[in-house]
Structures
1.
Amino acid sequence: MSDLVNKTIIIGGVGPGLGRETALASYRQGASVVIAARTAAALDAVAREVDPSGQRVATVVAEITSEADCHAITQTALDRFGAVDGIVNCAARSPGGGLQTAGDFSEWRATFEVNVFGTMRLIRVALDALKKAKGSVVMVNAQTHHYPPPSHVQIAYASSKSALSGAMHHLAMELGPDGIRVNEVTPGWMLGPSVERFVQSTARQRGVGSDTVLAEITARMPLRRMATDGEVAEAIAFLLSDRASGITGQTLMVNAGEIMH
């Protein structure tokens, strides 16, 4: 496929899971990609995998909680590739726990600072470039605020993602007249490095095999398996592309059918 040819995509929060897969999917479909994260070594490893030549990939060590770093990400895209056609923010802080363990809410504040304010900050900094390109924003949300998993309460994270959904709808309305589309992809359980670690840890604690834990988690899913982080990345790439040119203000759930809307 070549749905993203001649487009420049910024991907914030690139780690070994969804961020990496989104960079790979965007590159495969023809885009130049600017990948940002806090760790240079991790970024360099993903960049080498995406494009060993370095011609269509650029890296920026950055915190999206920093206004200056968000400017650096945007400026890198403009300096290297001349445009910002799309933004995907995979950066996320996802603490566990409920209200009774919230303490002074400092963890809530830190979570909102990354998940909500960081996302909004990067979009706002890149807004002039997005308007020029009539670009696309894809927010990465999470199914947990629609369906709290009984085994893993994470109220601060879910609250921040719920706020992100509200922001997505309002941004789609605000920026639509400028030709900018704003959507979100909402994974459920997503098979990748972090979930694999959770499954293995749970299996060790219970003294059972990883297959048993996976089977229990996926029993509610019509496909009887989790969507992979690569499959979620393909959904993101679709919403970035001109094939989705008539879609804005929407939530695309990628969850193997666990919840149906």
Note: Residues 189-225 form one domain.
2.
Amino acid sequence: MKVVVIPPYRAQNYTPTEGHYMVRELITDMKEKGQLNGVEIDIDDGYPVEDRTGYRDEEVLAIISAGIIERVKLYCEGDRYDAIVTSGGMEPGFSAARMISKIPVTGAINSAIHIASLIGDRFSTINLHDPAALIVRRLVHTYGLSHKMATAIAIGQPSNSMMAIIRKYKRGERGKAPEGKKLIDEIVARCISTIEEDRVDSLIFACPHPQCLQDEIRERLDQEGYGEIQLIGAFRAALQMARAMVNMKLKQAPRAYPSDTLKAKPRFR
């Protein structure tokens, strides 16, 4: 099975973005744990985006969605790939990508919330910023699972400072460094708060930054007596969902993601 992963975008000068760096790390981690046996993965080089805001909000989402769609058009033709995975924590271009693609397309948020719904009754999402948290809440509503969502939490940490820690220290060593421990302490505190106050059974790490810290967070939650709470990394979920769809010979239903060329048109919606 061969999959192509499309990170949200690449900077104007084609230097690797945070998303590319973290996607590579997460894939390496999954391979080392034996979670990707039989799966060959290519990572898209991305597309130039002029992001003048520096934020992660609706404006940037609209900008990068167009780039995602163009890359999906490129990869869904022929027989080079079996599936496409989009890794953005705000699900850029997901519905349009599913409409366009002739092969399975999975998105991080869509996959994670469906897995959370499968294994439990109440989940919260851990997001980087408030705009992203609201976007994810709207997505959950669109996917028909808002009755299982408790809260969409914003960590409120600048992405550049979190990325500095991820780049500076290796996996497994970040929680030992003072700044890494402080960051993990803050994330764990937010996790425990929603576990206790919102009575959730599962937590979804929607953005890639906390996903890169997931093992350290897991260890801390276990130490605090929350070993029964399930942790779901959104990008990991998307890769596994792609594998399941390919193995089951399924793709997104055209009636659910219709274009004007849909042949078996329903009589009403």
Note: The chain has a mean pLDDT of 91.
3.
Amino acid sequence: MNMNYNSLVFKLGRLLNKRIYLFPFNREIDTEPENMKIYFDVLNECKENKHVALTMPEYCLSFKLKTIEMCRLENKKEAKKLIEIEKWLIANVKDILDESDEILTVKYQLVYSVGRQAPLDGGKLRWEISQNVLELARRCLSELKKKYPESIELNEISGSKQSFPSIRLLNMEPYNELIKKICYYFFNRIGVEPDLPQYTSKDIDQLTEFVIEKEISETTKLEIEKLCHPKDASPSTTLKEILLILRGILSHDILFTVLNKRWKVEYGINSKSHLMQAVPYRAKDVPSER
């Protein structure tokens, strides 16, 4: 930001006598109509005199999210002014992007919490189920390694019982069989923590289809509803949450994405941090700063 600002001031300011306007924005800015009028007047001045406005992607995203927040809070005066400015920007501004590959990357996002803090659906079950799935994947891949030697990298780490083997799936070939095995162990209550009831083989087939298939038949949906809401017992909220968490992990290949990463190339430990927590890597042996 500073480098671009100085460069533009030097080249456009000195040579063409153009002003460089900075437009920072974050959620702490007071968006009273009077303040936004000043903001709007400066933008109009910039347009009329053919000057240049310099901003950053997070400022633009923050402005849009602030507009949504005001609409959500039904703050009509502030929301109206923000929408007016946003429409003006769409109609009058041409975007020139520096480092467009970085700015437009799909990994870039702005997390913007609104309202009171609330627990996520499933709560600690999200962590428990994920841990169970990884432990079952470890067991199943040890079995599948013999069948798919060219598709699975598996290096058992000796020592601590808590250590996790270095695992990498090189392609999708063993993945479908892996998730079916995980479902078999999970719904037969083999090596899992959640206390599930005893299911028939037909029920397990229905549960497995619900968890691993992207498209689910209406028959399966009805059967799952019956299992979650049995006639002779209270509705099983826990079962529904468990199934949805499992479906999120398995049906859209999230587990494959996790097991496809390369240790110390795409993720690993940041030695500069006091936390023994895996972080993304920008390149081999280069932990991400954020």
Note: The radius of gyration is 27 Å.
4.
Amino acid sequence: MLVNSLETATFRNIESCHIQFSDAVNIFYGKNGSGKTNLLEAIFVLLLARSPRSAADQIMIRDSADFFRVTGDVEIEGMSHQIAVACQKGGRKRITIDKISVRASELFEKCTAVSTAPDDVELLGGPPAKRREFINIYLSQASQRYIADLSDYNKVLAQKNAFLRQENNLGETPYDDLLIKYGSSIIIARKAFLDEIGRNAAEHYNGISGGQKLSTVYKPSVRIDDGAIEDNFAEKLARYKERERAIQTCLVGPHRDEVEFFIRDFPARSHGSQGEIRTAAISLKLAVFDYLKAIRKVTPILLLDEIFAELDAERVGMLVELFGRFGQIFLTTASEIPLALAGDARKFRIENGAVIQE
């Protein structure tokens, strides 16, 4: 797939623009705070109707404006489609493909994109919610069933938590059977996803770092190693029943899952250097790219925000060598553009939200 063009209106600090892209490498460069990251975010919103940095829709509306809108010509399976995503302040988001309204899940079914940014280091050292959000964004692009199960699970979870907050919550919780059904499916899907990208990420990390080791360990809320996940789910819910009533919150299920990463067999969050953690985060996103390309049979759009920051020259060189095996790439940099990229790439200078093609 390809993003051929992007048009924005009152999206963050970006001035209204209409940009035509290269089908290979596109570079946004300029000073920090100029709007480079916002442009990448606009492309991700165009493709998946959500921010890659988990920003609320209303946050992406420019100050003093009442709405944002991003539109673009996107080539999917050789066919050109006009996609538009708009959000009104205080209102709902509207998504259209060829001027026909669609749900966000339909964009996930048609489009695929991978975004990496400096704050991806939180995947390794931040709170567990960051890692669960990472799984949800990218596994949802690979599986419509996962999207449906996750949506149903979150609805049931909200209903159970509302029940637990009631004063007369001493009876049997009427939502556990559904939590087990949807939650077990989610955990099984996450296990398969993390097993696959864990292997690929280790290979990428080994290549970029010059031989170092990265490993990924999934720690689900419910035991799964004995193949009796639903029974284990039910047993743990029973054990935690009184505790859940006391604190009025569901404590068992995939909303409590954790993932841990190890560099050189040590916990990344406590033993990894800045460069090692940044390399590991990039390796994870490249592994996701490989996974989605294999599952979807299409090359994802790759969005790379300040990918060269905090990496030494050798690691930058290793990364640049990898770019030839990817499809369309959008990247930002506040530093000098690597010579290996400068020649063939289409370059855009960003100044205070204005986009100037060179």
Note: The chain has two domains: 1-112+298-358, 118-297.
